[in-house]
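Hey, sorry to bother you again with one of my protein questions. There's a protein on my desk that I can't quite get my head around. No rush at all, and the record is pasted right below.
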Amino acid sequence: MSATLQDGSFSGTSNSRNEPNRIPSCPWILLFDQTEAQLVVSAFRAGTNGVFARSRSDVNLLAKCIRKVVEGEIWVDNKQMLYLLEAVSSNEGPSTPSSSAPVRLTPRKESVVRLVVQGLVNREIAGTLHLSEHTIKNYLFRIFDKLGVSNRVELALYAVAKLNLADSTAA
């Protein structure tokens, strides 16, 4: 995707997202000519699961990116991850609840967030916590709503930046 599209960045994704019967639900990887901070952050806010710079012309690396995203992982390079962390820790990040009190999650919801930060998919989280996948989906829906995030990447970045859950994930 070119950053200089006539109708603006991501112009081709808006219609396809609103017509779920035309394109099956699948993870998205955006291929960019260049990966500027604003484009990377906007891509993840739009729901992508990976960002790949075409300037990295290594076909093997692109194949690995596709494989990892299909397996449920998120694909960004170190520089792109810094863009996302900066967006979360700045005012550009996801909107947080308006009260000045820190967000409090139940211990169970914190466990779910920790496992999301570790990169586990819902099935793996459910198995680890001995819960159903449906229960995990419900927890994530409520967590997203409470923290003002819209996807797993924003949740993981928010958790690392604001909830101090990153240090408890190393095991």
Remarks:
- The longest strand covers residues 29-32.
- The beta strands are 29-32, 50-53.
